[in-house]
Design brief:
The chain is mainly β and about 130 residues long. It has strands spanning about 5, 10-15, 20-25, 35-40, 45-50, 60, 70-75, 80-85, 90-100, 115-120, 120-125.
Length: about 130
């Protein structure tokens, strides 16, 4: 069992930056591939970014490429999402998720069904 707790959300002006953190419990964190998703009001939960167990591979949704960076520190059981050049359309609740697998195959990282554990989310609001 893995418990995930996100932090770092808040209110920021357009063009600003935030860094989200996701702290995981459990000694097996380093064996899980991790991802970030987001959900805006009235919309579906969308893939944002993912990283495999060793940080050897990272994946991003097209609209986040060049602006967001996912990273992880297995010694600290934490995964991060650095978000730069934020836009009002980035406003959403951001969720951290853990897959039971250490790596992603094909495009599996983008589907929420491939993640077994979820945090409760952290709100990010970008004002114009």
């Amino acid at each position: 069992q893995v418990q995930l707790v996100e932090s770092g959300g808040g209110l920021v002006q357009a063009g600003g930056s935030l860094r989200l953190s996701c702290a995981a419990s459990g000694r097996t964190f380093s064996t899980y591939a991790m991802g970030w998703f987001r959900q805006a009001p009235g919309k579906e939960r969308d893939f944002v970014a993912a990283v495999n167990w060793s940080s050897g591979s990272t994946y991003y949704a097209d609209s986040m490429k060049g602006r967001f960076t996912i990273s992880r520190d297995n010694a600290k059981n934490t995964v991060y999402l650095q978000m730069n050049s934020l836009k009002p359309e980035d406003t959403a609740v951001y969720y951290c998720a853990a897959s039971r697998a250490p790596i992603f195959y094909g495009g599996s990282y983008q589907y929420s069904a491939n993640y077994a554990y979820w945090g409760q989310g952290t709100q990010v609001t970008v004002s114009s």
